[in-house]
Structure formats: structure tokens, C-alpha cells
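A student in our group prepared the protein record below, which I am reviewing. What it holds is a sequence and that sequence's fold in C-alpha cell form. My question to you is simply how this chain folds and whether the C-alpha cells agree. Do not assume that whoever made the record got everything right. I have pasted the whole thing underneath without changing anything:
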Amino acid sequence: MTGLRLALGSFVLALAAIPVSAQTSAAPNAPQFTGSTACRTCHPQVYARWAKTRMANVVRDPKEQPDAIIPDLTKADPAIVKFRKEDIAFVYGSKWKQRYFTKVGNDYFPLGAQWDVAHQKWSAYFTRPGTDWWTAFYPEDNMKRPTGPLCDGCHSVNYNIQTNQVTEWNVGCEKCHGPGSAHVAMPSAANIVNPSKLDTVRAVDTCVQCHSQGQPLSNPIGGKYYDWPVGFVQGGNLSSVWKLEEHKLGDTTFTHFPDDTAHKNRMQGNDFVQSAMYTHGVTCNACHDVHGTENNADLIKPGQAMCLTCHGPNSPNGPRAASIEEHTHHKAGSTGDNCLECHMPKIGQTLPDDFVRSHTFRFITPDMTEKYRMPNACNSCHADKSTAWAKEQLKGWKDKSPWRVAQ
């Protein structure tokens, strides 16, 4: 029996490395993808929450959802926006920026402008050579950079690289729970993947499959270079098909600061897998509920409250202080007293002056700014002060090691 279990386990891992388009023919009796609507019958409340999330609404068709396009295209700057509403097959995003795809044949291509949601303005959209790794393999023309190999595997469920067809657009239930036909036919905890029941590595891989910068291990695939983990099936071994972006410590690159912290957005996974949280078995779903909450980033609790769930005063997990105020050296309730501002500073760029939070949970010191030219937590808030000022302030924090924060 033990040998049988090992053999089956090896089969599952091998299956995860086969491109999705090949899995059906290789294993005709394997569970198939059904789409999220099949989950609604038994899970109506969870489905209703998920349906309102950004995960469920990353990609929208303006012909089916006229409110999908945020800006007024009739007032767009013609020097930047050179397309019409009728050209837009899909819109992508709604929080920081919105991009627009047009359809040619059975593939989609990015149009040349994006909308900055926070600043309510247009900017040109084009990925410059020498930035993302894949620019070396695609012409400098948006209309020759299909979203199929570069985007759509993360913006859909079960993207077929041979037909460019999907089971559904957006991050549906089966993106995290795996193909659900067997579970739909006979609901059981044994025939569906539950990320909360997986080991730390595979639970976190649920999110790392899309929230990371990297490359497939075998690239190109069918003559095309892919920017998402082709062949990964939830519950399998992500590292068998995907490698994280390489980085040399000390270098500032398009993706990384010198200390290995993410320089840009969509690198929460690159950050998190080097964190003490990950080392101690904390998973993404310990803080986030992707089925939807009322909190920013679908946190289970508001940010500070989420941290204090495990990191209360004198907690064995830290901080080792009688109060949070004593630990932060900032007045209770102030910005500087908030865990996120010091341990998750907004330093990952998504637009020229829009940033997302770091997920290494390291406290980046002013000294690191001087040595490595990277933003630190102190001066991110005290922007009118110098790093020398910040270092002097830290020297007065007698409960902090001068060898770690003030040198």
C-alpha cells in the first residue's frame, strides 16, 4: 500500500509538469475543469463574496459589462489614446491602473495607453526593452506581443496553449482548488484541493503561481516564450515548472533592490518566500481570504489588527515590548505606530508614483538607503528628513540593537 501511495504521488507530480493542453489526452479519466458557476450550487455564500472581488473581475468584456471602462474615452488625449471603444475586447484592472486589449484572430494584444486610476490620467503603455526578461524575445510592437503567452495564463482558468481557449476568464475557484468535475459529481473533501490543508510550500504556491516574477523551466514552449507557469495544476509542485526571477545580491535591477526585496509589483511571492513568516510555516491564507472581505487586499482583519493576531505585546513571536507604542516609539494610533508602515513599506512600483507593500516583513533601515540606494521605512513617512536624521533618531531607541538599525 505504501508503494502504491508513492507511485500515485509521483504520478500527480508528473502530471503537474505536463502542459494543460496535453493533460486531457494523457489522463482522460482525470478531473476536468468545470468553471466557477458549478461551485455556486453548494457554496452560494462563498461564491457571492468571491464574485465581488478583484480576483473575479480582473478581466472584463465591455460589450457584456458597459461599466467596465473606467475613463471617458470621448475626452481622452488623442496624442496618447489612439484607439476607440469599439477596439476594446477586454479591460484589465481597476485598482491602480486599467489596461486595454484588442482581439486579433484568437489572441489578444495590449493597446498603447493605460489609465492611472488614482491620478485620473492617461499614460502611454509599452514595455520597454531591457525591462521584463521577455522583451528580448518579442518585437518592439504591442501588436506583436500577444497576451496569451505573456499574461493570460494568470488571468484565466485552464488556459490551453494550443487553442488559446480558457475554461473561464479571471481567477476562478479552480485556479486555487484545481479541476472540480469529480467534486461536483460527488462532493467530498478528498476529491478537491483545499489550499488551507496543503503543506506550507504548496499552500503558498497557490499564490506564487501568479504573484511572482519568473520563467517556466522549459522556455520557449512550442516556439513561444511564456511569462507564466505553463502546466502547473493546483496541488502539484510549482518548482517543477517555474523558477523565480534570478537576482545577484548587491545589484539594483528592474525587479529587485540590492537586498533581494522586490522593486516592482507582482512580486509578493518573490518577497514572501524569503521571509521569516514563510520559514515558520505561515501561509498567504493566514492573512488573506481571496473569497472576499470588507478589508483592503481581502485581509481577514484590517492590517494592524491582522498583525496583532500573532504579534501582540510581549508575544513570543515579537515584539518583545510591553506595548506596541513602546516597540514603535510612535504615539499610539499614529501612522508610525502601524506595523505595516515599518514592516511592509510601499516600495514595489506599479506606476511612477504608485507603490505596493513589501512582503519580506524586514525593517529596511536608513543605513541600507545610504549603502544600497533603496527606500527605507523611516524616510518613506518622514520624506522631509534626511537619512542622517533618521539614523540619529534610531540611536535613541535603546531597545534596538545599534548594530542592526543605527550604524
User: Anything to note?
Assistant: The two ends are 59 Å apart (CA to CA). Residues 1-26 have pLDDT under 50 and may be disordered. Residues 289 and 298 are 6 Å apart (CA to CA).
